[in-house]
Amino acid sequence: MEEEKLRKGPWLDEEDERLAYVIAILGERRWDALAKASGLRRSGKSCRLRWMNYLRPNLKHGHITQDEEHLIIKLQKQLGNKWSKIAKQLPGRTDNEIKNYWRSHLRKKTLICEQGSIQPSP
């Protein structure tokens, strides 16, 4: 028995549509079985991450607002790098999105502000 080769790389629009359709029918469960049932040549983990981070209907897409930014800074100071706990306070945002935003935008900003005793601009 030869194992079918899994597809890697960027997702196509057709794959996104098929994944959303299958999840609408079967629900969010057993991702390996769901990946097989969908006919996508993707791993269960890949399907789960695609759904959780990009396709879920309740996700917010777009820029992080200043209010969200201030909340991330405040919560990171309180909780440390507990991204999933921080994400629970920001409905529609994923832990991965918040972590990436922290690492690419806010970490330096907060360090500069702490060194100069300057508050981040509202």
TrEMBL record:
Annotated compartments: Nucleus
Gene3D superfamilies: Homeodomain-like
Domain spans labelled Myb-like: 3-55, 56-106
Keyword annotations of the record: DNA-binding, Nucleus, Repeat, Transcription, Transcription regulation
UniProt domain HTH myb-type: residue ranges: 3-55, 56-110
Domain of life assignment: Eukaryota
Pfam families assigned to the protein according to its UniProt record, in alphabetical order: Myb_DNA-binding
UniProt-recorded name of the protein: Transcription factor MYB27-like
Protein's gene: LOC107029904
